[in-house]
Amino acid sequence: MTTIAIESRRVFRRTDDYTPGTPKLKLTYEDLPSRLPSSSVLIKVHAVSLNYRDANIVNGGNPWPVIPHGIPCNDAAGEVIATGADVKTLKLGDRVAPIIDTENITGRESARSWLAADEDGVLADYLIFDERILSIVPSHLSWAEACLIPCAGTTAWAALKGFGIGKSVLIQGTGGVSMFALKLARAAGLQVILSSSSDDKLQQIKAQFSSPPLLTVNYKSPVWHEEVLKLTGDAGVDLVLEMGGTGSLVQSIRCTRRGGTVSQIGYLSRQDPSDLAELLPVLIDRRVNLRGINAASKYDMDDLCAALSAMQLHLDDIIDTTYFFEQSGEAIQSIWEGKHVGKLVVSL
């Protein structure tokens, strides 16, 4: 086993106090083990990105169990500064990021274990991970860009899989996954329709991504699916990236072409089973393929990193705000309030 020269780390843990207005994170100092397991590496973290899931967990809203007082966040990028004796795929100085479901290597595993839920997350200045769950991130990306890949990136990649040049996609929302998907979809030659409940956000993004002109729909309209149909000559889009859940799923299917696909990613709206009363007849009538998306495997993450490198695609234009490590609590509160467009990043 390799000896570790660094003795301790700074780390944020959840307080698990869900009372409104109380601190949700506590900064602590923890000892690192003196020796590194043979197949693991020590990572100096340079950036962590936040997801709505992080705010949901610290506020007690996650629908799945989480370990008590765990470390939040599942997206990080950093530099390998020590390697175990048997590490074969990584070396000192490599730029890496962990996958967020540490059991999901090939996509065929039956088990699951999510960072920041089933096990500790990544909001710390040093991390130790087994080499098998780490991907090498593109060298042309800044640390802030690279840390967007594990969750938002792989989720968008998996949700868009199978669709390319000339196809059409409806992307719901203006959060991190949506903005990453917008970038990938544009690069892949898809026609994009973006939806939001905020005209201001839609105008901001239309100005930012002006060529080719971005089609938009405000989903505050009770029949927003009809607006999507009009934009596609009543045919419907080939693919929907569905973020809302029960409140929007039926309308998403209604504006998908017959034989098209809905990638169900999130459940950000108020969840009410009565909204699904028409689900089965609409699903059958439209002959839509409904697929659940829960991030992606390590193989998918490696493929995404290769694609980003090949395209030399940058992601800085989908970062809304960057915070210092000490501001992590403020950053999570900000994402909870939902005022951002794109991603929030913590820099170390």
From TrEMBL:
GO molecular function per UniProt: oxidoreductase activity
Domain Enoyl reductase (ER): 21-346
Coiled-coil intervals, chain numbering: none
Gene3D superfamilies for the chain: Medium-chain alcohol dehydrogenases, catalytic domain (3.90.180.10), NAD(P)-binding Rossmann-like Domain (3.40.50.720)
Entry superkingdom: Eukaryota
A Pfam family the protein falls into: ADH_N
UniProt name for this protein: Enoyl reductase (ER) domain-containing protein
